[in-house]
Structures are given as structure tokens and as C-alpha cells.
Amino acid sequence: MILLISDLHLEEERPDITRAFLDLLATRARAASALYILGDFFEAWIGDDAMSPFQRSICQALRTLSDSGTAIFLMHGNRDFLLGKAFCKAAGCTLLKDPSVVQLAGEPVLLMHGDSLCTRDIGYMKLRRYLRNPLTLFILRHLPLRTRHALARKLRSESRTQTRMKANDIVDVTPEEIPRIMQQYGVKTLIHGHTHRPAIHKLQIGELAAKRIVLGDWDRQGWALQVDDQGFQLAAFDFPVAALPQL
């Protein structure tokens, strides 16, 4: 059994999401041969050298799962594209390129975060190309921590404001991009996150039946895609209730 999740946006201010993630690691993920996290794992990441105690605790939880025998694969999202080799080494996980083709349920499957599919959002795509440029990444990683913190706050604020102002079809994937990229990589199944619109879409690419699976974001509930002998099963689950303090 394999699990795929994305868009947890982990941050110290959302202990309910953190609690749900740690519960997943201690239960379902322990029974999985692999766990794939397809981007926006953290709400923000300004560099491996700037890990907070909270982020270190998440890193250690991943390491514990990895040491138990579950392989962990992590992909960059638009919020945490500065996650690097140091974090992955400490967490015991493998950093995947976006996009990547992996074998799931006996077939090649294309995994993506999903933001690169939103080509109608011209302003964002321009910013994405700039931020992912190797020279830009080098400069960002070597800025003073105070500057990186300020830049992260600015980008998050602008992203929220612009997303509210943009039409729904602009911030969703471009329909024409789906068959194009699936044909490019020779797959019948695409799995991605980013849009926060969980669903399994049946497609027709040429003469072939295909599907696009969109993972859900973790906010009021969690989402996970389970791949096993029964196929691909996308389902939401409730967050565990916090334990009451001892009086």
C-alpha cells in the first residue's frame, strides 16, 4: 500500500493539522511501503539553515517513519521550494523532481505539485520561472535570515491577495495542459495537488482512457490517496480530536 498527500501547509499556528499529520505517520503510514508528499508540505520554508524547533520536530517525525521502513518522497511546492538536501537527509526522505514518473499499481504515473499546470495565471508563471531559476535560488539561500523572513511574509501576503482577486479558472489548471503533459511523459494517470480541488477526473487522451487525480488540501479535514490492490482511492478523513488537558 502506498499513500500520497499534499498541501498540508504545516505551520505552528495550526496544531490541528500537525496533530492529524503526526497521527497519520503513527498509523496508516506505518503500514505503507511508501509515502509521497507532493508539495506545500510547509506553509513557508526559507532555508534548511533556518529550521525552527517546530520544523525540526516534523523532520524528526519523518525520520522515525523512515527508520521504521516506509520510504518517503518529497516534492517541492510553491510555498516550500527552498526545501533542500540537508532537510531531506535529516528526515530520511528523497527529494523528487517536479514532474516525476513513478511506478504505482503496476503502471507509470506522473506526479506533479500542480502549479506549473496553471498556465493561464501569467503573472504567477512569470514569478515561478524567476524564483526557480538556479541563480535566484542561490541568492535566496544566501540572504540574511531576517531578509528571507521578510520576503516570505511579503510573498505569502501578495499570494493570498491576488488569489482572492483572480477568477477561478485562472488559478485552476489549464485544461489543454493536461493531455499535453501526459502525452509528453507517456502516462495514463496524473496525480497532483496545489489547486485544493480534490477529485478524480476521467479523461480521454486520443483513444486511451486516462485519469487525473487531484489531491486535497488539509484545512478542515485531511485528504490522502491510497494506492493498493483495489486501485486508486481518494478519501477525506476527520482530524483527530485533541486530548483534554489533565486537571
From TrEMBL:
The keyword Membrane applies. The keyword Aminoacyl-tRNA synthetase does not apply. The lineage of its organism: Bacteria, Pseudomonadati, Pseudomonadota, Gammaproteobacteria, Pseudomonadales. Binds 2 Mn(2+) ions per subunit in a binuclear metal center. One of its GO terms (molecular function) is UDP-2,3-diacylglucosamine hydrolase activity. GO terms for biological process: lipid A biosynthetic process. SUPFAM superfamilies: Metallo-dependent phosphatases (SSF56300). This is UDP-2,3-diacylglucosamine hydrolase. InterPro entries: Calcineurin-like_PHP (IPR004843), LpxH-like (IPR043461), Metallo-depent_PP-like (IPR029052), UDP-diacylglucosamine_Hdrlase (IPR010138). Its cofactor is Mn(2+). It comes from the Bacteria. Its EC number is 3.6.1.54. Keywords: Cell inner membrane, Cell membrane, Hydrolase, Lipid A biosynthesis, Lipid biosynthesis, Lipid metabolism, Manganese, Membrane, Metal-binding. Pathway: Glycolipid biosynthesis; lipid IV(A) biosynthesis; lipid IV(A) from (3R)-3-hydroxytetradecanoyl-[acyl-carrier-protein] and UDP-N-acetyl-alpha-D-glucosamine: step 4/6. NCBIfam families: lipid_A_lpxH (TIGR01854), PRK05340.1 (NF003743). Hydrolyzes the pyrophosphate bond of UDP-2,3-diacylglucosamine to yield 2,3-diacylglucosamine 1-phosphate (lipid X) and UMP by catalyzing the attack of water at the alpha-P atom. Involved in the biosynthesis of lipid A, a phosphorylated glycolipid that anchors the lipopolysaccharide to the outer membrane of the cell. Belongs to the LpxH family. Substrate binds at residues 78-79, 121, 159, 163, 166, 194.
